[in-house]
Amino acid sequence: MTTEAISPGLSAGTLSGPRGPKPKTVTIGRIGVYAFLIISAVFFLMPLWVMIVTSLKTMPEIREGHLFNWPALLTFDPWLKAWDTACTGRDCNGLKPGFWNSVKITALSVPVSIVIAMINGYALSFWKYKGSELLFGILIFGAFVPFQVVIYPLIIGLSKVGLFATLPGIVVVHTIFGMPILTLLYRNFFASLPIELFKAGRVDGAGFWGIFFRIMLPMSVPITIVAIILQVTGIWNDFLFGTVFAGRENMPMTVQLNNIVTTTTGTREYNVNMAATILTAAVPLVVYFISGKWFVRGIAAGAVKG
Amino acid sequence: MTQIAEPGERAAPGFAGTAAEHKPRTRRKFNIQSVLGTTPMIVTAVGVFVICIIFSIIWSFTNSKLFPNFNFIGLAQYERLWANDRWNISVRNLAVFGVLSIGVSMVFGYLLAVFMDQRIKQEDLFRSIFLYPFAMSLVVTGLVWQWMFDPNLGIQSAVRQLGWTNFEFAPLVKQETALYGLVLGGLWNGVGVTMAILLAGLRGVDSEIWKAAKVDGIPTWKTYLFIVLPMMKGAVATAFILQMTGIVRVFDIVIAMTQGGPGVSTQMPAVYVIQHITDRVNVGQGMAAATMMLLPVMLLIAVQYLLRWNANRKAGRA
Amino acid sequence: MKSVVSVVALVAAALLGSTSVRAADVEVIHWWTSGGEQAAVSVFAREFDALGGDKWVDTAIAGGENARSATLQRILGGDPPGAAQFNPGRQYEELIAGNMLLDLTDLATKENWAGFIRPASISEACLVDGHWWCVPVNIHSWNWAWASVPAFEKAGVPLPTSFDDFLAEAPKLQEAGIIPFAIGGESWQINGAFGVIQTSLLGLEKREKILKDKDLELAKAEMPAVFEKFRQFKQFSDAGSANRNWNDTTNLVVTDQAALQIMGDWARGEFGVAGEKAGVDYACLALPIDHPTVSTGGDIFLFPKQSDPAVEAAQLKMASMMVNPQVQALFNNAKGSMPIRDDVDMSLADDCMKRGLEIIKDPANIAVDAGRWQSNDTTGQMNDLVAQFWADDTMTAAAAAEQYVTILQNAD
């Protein structure tokens, strides 16, 4: 156990091997296992299927119902329209302008929020000071506060320091709201590392930053992957903060998605809506499909040890 | 809540569990770098959350409308709040929604994790399938499920077109069932993450345990339920907290899926708060509702601190 | 060459700090994002840009609630937009009181807005204590019902002449396999229909006494019957109504599956898109049928105060442009709404709108939008109540009326 834990980078592999009884030949049990998993998979895939086939249908065909059917008349126009020409107000350039804004916001906010949470977790595990636990408690409490409740004070505060409606402003906001869960994640991760690691660093004469950069940072790769996945999803999908804090030039893609999808008294084009929805979700989806394996390993590497 | 409680308590491996080892392992001399390094956390915790909460509480005693003010009117906002049908229904809904969502998510998530743990083929594929909905925003989740549940376009009509003309499955159109439709949509979004966390927890359990259970002839399902599960407190706690934060703040999915209807049958406290501080232009009422929402969480954390303080005191005496 | 000159001029102006000649960008927040709405807002933008120099900078945020919140929060954060769309009502009264809006009085006096903007209740939304704080741009009326002519023919029922008439004949429609009363599940749809039924039952005078003067005795006496009547409509709606969008609901009437829908005048667009003809395929009934009225919903623009005088000058130009008769004609034809002045060429309008324009001429036919009298808070509570009553059959009309009176009593 000790040797394993000293090198979680290696142990992640051994930890995540399936632990159940070895599969024998085809038994009733095995069939049951697969039946359960496949039925569950159908449940999870059904909405995606509906979204895809709907996005490929024409509007008259959608009105006929037949939700699950493959389109009788295949069309890719909704996709082109969603990306390129759908109107989001006066501008009819589809989703593409917002895409790069979202990339910009995500690319800046994810590393900043993660680095800060990492330092928090590290300090809370190895360098507690008077009141640090209380701060952490407040932070966790903050995870339960509805975002909108804190918007007013935040607007006033950010405009006082001149960051309101700017790119750094939105990065700060995402860092603040990502902090509770990320700090929790890192704190648990670092707490699961053996104390000997830390002590060895101290014996070598390293201080707060020395130990952090030389020992802790390299070890935290698995949990950082989890953090990246959570943050990319959360920040990419954010709408509320984007409209208020990002400023007009940096409006994220979700604002345009909302402009295409939401309408009170206008007509709705479901096929374009679905295509726009899939396009907007594409980035986090790709992140998930590529890194799903690391997600479980990352969590296994520390976030769940009690 | 062991996760929050005390990471330091996890005795370092190889030491006997005496009282001495239970001392927080980080009781070292004060380090200024640690404080400097966590400045963003201090600023956030104090500057954002504490100040916001204090102001929220203060404003809940005022008649603030569009912009917050300081005209105090006593408990009037709270009296109105608790006399309001919609608020009372919201609170009840949150309780039902929370218990159901967390309960089903834990059971279903653990089942999925256990089945995934059976050395199955295509584990990567299955995991991706279970996990991908979490990448979708809750607004998208709500829209898609609203569609699936639509009596004329969705599952119900599709099944009817197959020949079962009496088939009924449109939970959102009835007051009595709409909340369950909401739960289902939320589960679709979040079960995968619960599964992933619990699967990670399963694989973190020492393989010696499995060997020992086998030697003792304990059936696999019993091992999973009575031996392994209790050893995964950390995973369960992480999954629990992650879900709790989402549930208390549940908003997007309600707006996208039911807008609180039919009637007010799927209203939630967060929707009440947000509508009042934005479109209904009654910040005072919204803040009173927000304060009520935060109260249970505050109590929970206070109780936890008290318990810990008590435990520390006892440990100190021993 | 021209662009070079203008760049030079811009740079020079910036360097010299000159304000009089400098062009400005005016950012406009609005929630017009669907097809027809987008065409309409483009009229404004094009006309504004054509005035020369200044530029319309478009910020569209779908959903009125989202857009209004963004505007208010931006004002609070000290980064106000140059112009912002609102609905006429009381939501911005604190902005006026807090002196956060540009005072348009001088411009309005010069152009004599009070002289041509009609009906009076439309200008009252912007004219507070003798000062103009915003610009009304159009009128949308809720007081319409849309009927499928073939559906009524199929059931052998003539088009209704009153709500009672409709309710009496509704079972025949039902027998013919038609949904008599089409309604969607969003609470604004239910409340809109409720408001129209309330107006029909009470008449304009009593309605005003209850909603404006908060006559509790009258409300106690009259409201139970209104709720009772409203419930009668429910039995003729279909099971799928909960959660349905308004345009999917209208589509039921378009496709003759349903007979009648109570919905504002924007529903006309849905029939137009489907190629239906007024009078042949569908009928628009101004409500109440025996004494048609027009309600005064619609949109206004307000102009948050700016620190830059160049922007302020551009804001005034924009306000003036919005009430211009030619712009009004182009805009309202695209939007499908009624113009705020009479001297506008609406010859392109369809029969239903022409009907509305006739009705609006007589001040006695104006049902003032309840949002003029009630705060959003009060309206919101009433909306909750009506939606709850509609969905919950165990709630009696008496109980609902009692709650209604309480809300009225506590209204601010």
CATH topology of the largest domain in chain C: D-Maltodextrin-Binding Protein, domain 2
Strand content of chain A: under 5%
CATH topology of chain A: MetI-like fold
- End-to-end C-alpha gap of chain A: 15 Å
Shape type of chain A:
flat
Main beta sheet strand tally, sense and closure of chain C: 5 strands, mixed
Structurally, the number of domains of chain C stands at 2
Question: What percentage of amino acids of chain C are in beta strands?
Answer: 5-15%
Count of individual beta strands of chain C: 13
Q: What gap, in angstroms, lies between the N and C termini of chain C?
A: 60 Å
Query: How does CATH name the architecture of the largest domain in chain C?
Result: 3-Layer(aba) Sandwich
Main sheet attributes: strand count, strand direction, barrel closure of chain A: none
CATH architectural arrangement of chain A: Orthogonal Bundle
On the 0 to 100 scale, the average pLDDT of chain C is 87
Structural class of chain A: mainly alpha
Which features would summarize this protein structure in a list?
heterotrimer, B: 318 residues, mainly alpha, MetI-like fold, 68% helix, disordered N terminus, C: 412 residues, alpha/beta, D-Maltodextrin-Binding Protein, domain 2, four-stranded mixed sheet, 51% helix
Overview of this structure, please?
- The complex is a heterotrimer of chains A (306), B (318) and C (412).
- Chain A is an all-alpha fold and 306 residues long.
- Chain A has one domain (76-303): Orthogonal Bundle (MetI-like fold).
- Chain A is built from 15 helices and no strands.
- Chain A is flat.
- Chain B has helices at 2-5, 19-22, 32-37, 39-59, 76-83, 85-116, 123-131, 138-148, 155-161, 178-204, 207-215, 220-231, 233-248, 252-257, 269-277, 283-317.
- Chain B is flat.
- With 318 residues, chain B is an all-alpha fold.
- Chain B is built from 16 helices and no strands.
- Chain B has a single domain, classed as MetI-like (MetI-like fold), CATH 1.10.3720.10.
- Chain C has two domains: 21-141 and 297-362, Periplasmic binding protein-like II (D-Maltodextrin-Binding Protein, domain 2, 3-Layer(aba) Sandwich), CATH 3.40.190; 144-295 and 365-410, Periplasmic binding protein-like II (D-Maltodextrin-Binding Protein, domain 2), CATH 3.40.190.
- In chain C, strands 2-1-3-12-6 form a five-stranded mixed beta sheet. A four-stranded mixed beta sheet of chain C has the order 8-9-7-10.
- Mean pLDDT of chain C is 87; it is low at 1-21.
- The chains are: A mainly alpha (306), B mainly alpha (318), C alpha/beta (412).
